[in-house]
């Protein structure tokens, strides 16, 4: 990386955008964050240049991106409100700004692009036949980015399984399995016993992106990678890890119960988030695993935090357990 390269992060206040902004900052990048509200003062935001602007405003995005080598497109409408109407125009603004600044676009990807004909093992080039509205939009997003790469832009997409982490934003861990801010009494698991599921620890995903960006000049103009993350082979391993962590830290083991899908069905007409969660139920009914061979071949490894360590950090960040005293990290890398 050239000294003091600049990156613009759209969606830098939460989720993968926030985690990637912090890791890029710590890796020596000059990080700009675009957000609509006036900047707040807190320790996490030290050394991030906050620029007031709206991802729906093309001129404001272009102005914020001037001089940037990379634009991270991690912005989403809050609570899935008006998602279909806003997502593609925001991406078009990012593409226009990247072309003007000659910047690389980074998109955190998902598996929503894929339908049952691509399961159970997903490679980067598996057929994309989505079965949901959100999946169809994801396919269109990547198609527009591919066209942009054909026209001279550079694109990096990293797809991962269900996010979890201390500051992961909206995700199944914090909206389904447990209740943030409360002791873990019951783990509501959405999948069925015997059905494997893919999880991704947000700091690991961000670390992979940082390492790929350091090699971006050697990547294809349209580069896309899959994270292996944490594979729960039978739908019990992830919940069991939560039980272990809570028992060790709080002295009791929470019970594991079935997720109340019936409640989402009843509430979906009135709640956009519940409606979107219900639409994704098919991803919990069949084993879906991601092939990370391309990522490992490129980096030599995949950033990988041990499962119990990742879950402990997540539960502490969500205020479900008390924060532990700082200690040396046991993080490791694996293929």
Automatic annotation (TrEMBL):
One of its GO terms (cellular component) is cytoplasm. SUPFAM superfamilies: NAD(P)-binding Rossmann-fold domains. Residues 7-227 form the NAD-dependent epimerase/dehydratase domain. One of its GO terms (molecular function) is aldehyde dehydrogenase (NAD+) activity. InterPro entries: Epimerase_deHydtase, NAD(P)-bd_dom_sf, NAD(P)-dependent_oxidoreduct. It holds the Pfam family Epimerase. It comes from the Bacteria. PANTHER family: NAD(P)-BINDING DOMAIN-CONTAINING PROTEIN-RELATED, PROTEIN YEEZ. This is Membrane protein. The lineage of its organism: Bacteria, Pseudomonadati, Pseudomonadota, Betaproteobacteria, Burkholderiales.
